[in-house]
Structure formats: structure tokens, C-alpha cells
Amino acid sequence: MLPALAASESLPVEAVNEGLYYHHWSNPLQTVIAGDTVKFANPGSEVPHGLKFTSGPTSPSCTGIPAAAAEESGATKWQGQCTFSTPGTYAFLCTVHPGEMKGTITVSAGGTTTSTATTPTTTTTTPLQPPTGSPLVGEPSIRSIQHGGVVKGSLEVSQAGAGDRLQVKLLATRASLATVARVTVGHLTLASVKAGRQSFTVKLSAKARRALHRRHRLRLSVRITLTPSHGAPTTVTRSTLERS
After folding, report:
1. In the CATH scheme, what architecture does the domain 13-125 have?
2. DSSP secondary structure string, 82-119?
């Protein structure tokens, strides 16, 4: 028999700034095995960010996080990591931008297991199950370049997210629209979603279509939010370039 596989590799969670007014985490939804370590960072030098866990079965063991992940503060240019020893769902947010920068780490009790057949090079693997506490399975799918005045995408809703309200917003900087901050240029709301793959199409507003016609391209942020009847919403943001 071969030993069980080592701890799984997680993606780093990093603070991302889109201009001065909108921020989000990259890879905000993670699934790891008990004992795994997840890296967190704010690589930017202009906008401070911090990290705080708001729920979970225990407090993870963290190093390198500004203010020890406790005080309502943040910093620039930092790297840290947190080790999760207890299975469960851990919700976190940015202490500087708590309303828009949220994420979830789902910790599984066991990972993949490996056993051999008649030859030592043949193995069978049992994959990790989808997260039970997160409303999403994996990451939303949105093409980086789109056309026609609409933005299309899809996401897979877990059983935990069934019945949540889905809201998709298209955001653009007012600079792109010949004005000054960030505005909503398209939106879609579904009162309740089913578990499984969900596709969506969001039309640009008339003002955004006129700007697209003039400039032939429009950089957009696609903000996807799943809101349960009870509990905190889950928000994921992706970027796309709309071309005429």
C-alpha cells in the first residue's frame, strides 16, 4: 500500500484593486484538507487591506497577517498564511473593506486516498467532495472578451446555495463613460436559483451601449452575489472586456 497523498495545494488569496473605489479577493472560495495552509497577501503598495475570520469552528493559526487578523486595520505589501486544523467552514473578510471583500475556506476532514492495483504504477483516487458550506461549486465561468452589448456567463450552485437570490451586476468606471467613479451599467436578479449549472445574460444599459459605440471597447467588472434567506451573502467578482 502507498501512503495517503500529502496535503492538497490551495490557490493563494490576494487582494485585488480595480481603481481606487472597488476591491475584491482573488480565489475567495477555497476547499482544503484539515492541516492545510492557505496563503493570503496584499501585494499592492497603495491600498491597505487586512484579514479577519468572522466564523468557523475554531480560529485558524495565522502568521504574517496585519494586526494578527483581529484589529480593524490593514496594511500594504504583506504576505501571510493560515493553517486550518479543524474541519468546517471559515468565513473571512477584509478589515478595511468588509462589505465587498469576503470569502470562504471550506476544510474537509479527509482528502484523496490512493491504493495500488497489481502493478505499483496503477492507482485509484477518490476526489474531494464539493464544499458543503459554500453556495458555489468552483469558480464562475465568464469569457474575458465579449461582444454584442451583453455579458454572458455561468456558475454552478451547490446544494447549500439552492434557493439563494442571484444578483449579477456589470460595473464600469465613470472614466470609461466620460464621467468620474464606478457605476452599474447592467444588472440581473433572480429571486431563487436551483442547484446545478446556471447560465446568465446581462444587457448593457443604453448609456453604456452608447459609450461602447464611441470607444469600441469597455472594461467591465462582473459582480456575482448569492444571498441566502438567512446569513451573509457570497460575492465573487470577475473582469471582462466588452467590444463593439
Report:
1. Sandwich (2.60)
2. EE--S-EEEEEE-SSSTTT-EEEEEEES----EEE-SS
pLDDT of the residue at 200: 93
pLDDT, tens only, 139-157: 889 988 999 899 999 999 9
Contact 135, 228 (CB under 8 A): yes
CATH class of the domain defined by 141-243 = mainly beta
Q: Is the pTM of this model over 0.70?
A: no
CATH 2.60.40.420 residue ranges of the chain are 13-125
Residue 57 per-residue DSSP state: S
Q: Which residue has the cell 497577517?
A: 65
DSSP state at residue 209: H
Which parts of the chain are beta strand (E)? 13-18, 22-26, 29-33, 37-42, 52-55, 61-63, 78-83, 88-93, 102-108, 114-116, 123-125, 141-142, 145-147, 150-157, 165-173, 182-190, 196-203, 217-227, 234-243
For CATH 2.60.40.10, list the domain ranges present in the chain.
141-243
Whether residue 128 is predicted with pLDDT greater than 50 in this model: the reply is: no
Q: How far apart are CA 49 and CA 43, in angstroms?
A: 10
